[in-house]
Amino acid sequence: MSMATRWRSTVDGWHASKGDIVAVHQVFALLGAVADQGEGGAQQLAAKTALPTHTAQRLLHAIARLGYLRESGGGWRLTPRVFELGARALPQPDVVALARPAMRELARSSGEAVTLGLRDADDIVYVQKVESHGATGVCIPVGSREPLQRSFLGAGGPTCHVRRLPHLCSLGMPFFDHDGQVVGGLVMHVPAGRADAARVGELAAGLQAATATISSGLGHMPQQACSAPAPLPFLPKLDE
């Protein structure tokens, strides 16, 4: 479900008498529509959010005055201020800061890009990527969201999950907090041409070490070692 659809369905549940609350939902529906499309004109965004064009236009200008949108070439785009606001919602301790050194070391030692995903209720949100000299140009877009059960975290457990496609091999492994709950995980994408069994084993070991370091920083006490790589039930949509 897109961000705009999620907010629009919520708005439909409110009566018009709750005008202030409806206006708030309309604002976030528009922000979600811009996020979904990357850029859009007032008429296009109004259609996507089922708002009258004049209402959408008025709210877009109001949001822009607050610094969260800017008009460019007749369309509306999000500003970095939206990211600044979202970054403050990251879990504490700052998992991104905690994970970054382990991600950098894994990218350096493996020559592959590493993507960080964090759990958000029943979803996983991909929040950061560390490139490397061997990066393939294939990645999960930062800021994208997938249902938890369809992601590499869905299987749970301290296991490195592997998914092979005709031209790509992807590996993912979760990390845990002090209660043993999944907080997030790391994902790597490797061209099939350099992903034989030995190479996959090396990358799985690297992922195990990196996620163990992050889990330890979150206070997790492992009960058992990482098991052998297992198939990944679903690979999130990739950009090439």
Structural write-up:
This protein has about 240 residues and is an alpha+beta fold. The protein folds into two domains: about 5-85, Arc Repressor Mutant, subunit A, CATH 1.10.10.10; about 95-230, GAF domain (Beta-Lactamase, 2-Layer Sandwich), CATH 3.30.450. Helix content is about 40%, strand content about 25%. The chain has seven helices and nine strands, in the order ααααββααββββββαβ. Strand 1 (about 70) and strand 2 form a beta hairpin. The longest helix is centred in the last third of the chain and has 21 residues, at about 195-215. About 35% of the residues are buried.
How is this fold's topology laid out?
Layout: H1 3-11, H2 19-37, H3 42-49, H4 53-65, E1 69-72, E2 75-78, H5 80-87, H6 95-110, E3 114-120, E4 123-130, E5 145-147, E6 159-165, E7 168-176, E8 182-191, H7 197-217, E9 227-231
Parallel strand pairs: 6-9
Antiparallel strand pairs: 1-2, 3-4, 3-8, 4-5, 6-7, 7-8
Helix pairs in contact: 1-2, 2-3, 3-4, 6-7
Q: Tally the helices: what do you get?
A: 7
User: Class by helix and strand content?
Assistant: alpha+beta
Based on CA atoms alone, the radius of gyration comes out at 20 Å
Helix content: 25-40%
In the CATH hierarchy, the architecture of the largest domain is 2-Layer Sandwich
Instruction: Tell me the number of strands.
Output: 9
Shape: elongated
Q: What letter string, H or E per element, gives the SSE order? A: HHHHEEHHEEEEEEHE
Number of domains: 2
- The CATH class of the largest domain is Alpha Beta
Work out the strand percent.
15-25%
CATH fold naming of the largest domain: Beta-Lactamase
The CATH homology group name of the largest domain: GAF domain
pLDDT averaged over residues: 79
Largest sheet: 7 strands, mixed
